[in-house]
Hints:
The complex is a heterodimer.
Chain A: E1 3-7, E2 10-14, E3 19-26, E4 30-38, E5 45-50, E6 56-59, E7 62-66, E8 70-75, E9 84-92, E10 101-102, E11 106-111
Parallel strand pairs in A: 2-11
Antiparallel strand pairs in A: 1-3, 3-8, 4-5, 4-9, 6-7, 7-8, 9-10, 9-11
Chain B: E1 4-7, E2 10-13, E3 19-25, E4 31-38, E5 42-51, E6 54-57, E7 64-70, E8 73-78, E9 87-94, E10 101-102, E11 106-110
Amino acid sequence: xxxxxxxxxxxxxxxxxxxxxxxxxxxxxxxxxxxxxxxxxxxxxxxxxxxxxxxxxxxxxxxxxxxxxxxxxxxxxxxxxxxxxxxxxxxxxxxxxxxxxxxxxxxxxxxx
Amino acid sequence: xxxxxxxxxxxxxxxxxxxxxxxxxxxxxxxxxxxxxxxxxxxxxxxxxxxxxxxxxxxxxxxxxxxxxxxxxxxxxxxxxxxxxxxxxxxxxxxxxxxxxxxxxxxxxxx
Lengths: 112, 111
């Protein structure tokens, strides 16, 4: 069974304090790994897609990386507006090309 | 929200009544999905569609049915609502079947 585990469940940082969120996965044939941001009361917002180990993507203060077993979302010098829940999802060959399996998310709080 | 609307945005209904949620897109994307999001379970796929009148089951499809008669609309029906179906429901769309874009959600309460 394909599984996605995110850690930590919750993370509280001071503004400017860099850190990383982890997404570990066990799947049969990874087709893609996706990161989303979700604000309270809203739908998930797409951030990145990673397809192969070694790939990296950046957007403002966020950088996503991928290995064969896990992905990291690095947050550099975060600001309070980066506070949100960050979701990781995988698309695996065993699930069918169109289906995503989501982790339970990391709730990030950035204090000013 | 990438040209996706969901209606209604909030609904309270009684156990045993049928409920239909609507997802409408203006992006002409091929794939459409229905998820539910619950504390402790994350986002779980209910059903998805890969074209007009082409649908398939997801992880938690029992008690739900879907229909897609037009590219732009994907309906989710709870045939006889139960309290366990109280949740937040999200619709998503995808052009190529990889990255998905989500709607604003519908909060459904079954009393």
